[in-house]
Amino acid sequence: MSTDGIKAPRGRALACIVASVGIAMALPGCAYYAPVPVTTTVPASFDRSFSAASGAMRDQGLTITAEDRSTGTVVGKLEGGTVTASVRQQADGSVRVQFDANGVRDPALINRVSQSYDRRMGR
């Protein structure tokens, strides 16, 4: 057997090992960035907010006695108490919703209405 036949495979093997070590050493220098989930939030529209406020009041058993989109007002009654929702378009395009209670016997009612509103808005 000639020594030329032995050297060639060893030379290729050595070249592959050197290349593998070089690649392995270069990998720690590479940065890997995991994908970041992107959530897009769409500003609430007046109509969607108004409907959610009205629906939230119904969810909690209030009887709607007044509903006026032009003024952004929803009024609901329950056991002699009144809950009023005020929906207002802000100058920056956002929508502000406020719930007020008057004469309500259940102090947790306003919180439940607010939570129902949040659920309806997907929050």
Can you walk me through this structure?
The protein is of the alpha+beta class and 123 residues long. The protein has a domain at 46-120: Alpha-D-Glucose-1,6-Bisphosphate, Chain A, domain 4 (2-Layer Sandwich), CATH 3.30.530.50. The chain contains three helices and four strands, in the order ααββββα. It has a four-stranded antiparallel sheet, with helices on one face. Strand 1 and strand 2 form a beta hairpin. Helix 2 packs across helix 3. The mean pLDDT is 82.
Count up the helices.
3
Shape: rod-shaped
Strand content: 15-25%
CATH architecture of the domain at 46-120: 2-Layer Sandwich
The N- and C-terminal alpha carbons lie at a distance of: 79 Å
Strand count, sense and barrel status of the largest sheet are: 4 strands, antiparallel
Which sequence of SSEs, written as H and E, runs from N to C? HHEEEEH
Topology of helices and strands:
Blueprint: H1 3-26, H2 46-59, E1 63-68, E2 73-78, E3 81-89, E4 95-102, H3 109-120
Antiparallel strand pairs: 1-2, 2-3, 3-4
Tell me briefly what this model is.
This protein is an alpha+beta fold.
Name its key features.
single chain; 123 residues; alpha+beta; Alpha-D-Glucose-1,6-Bisphosphate, Chain A, domain 4; 4-stranded antiparallel β-sheet; 3 helices; 24% strand; rod-shaped
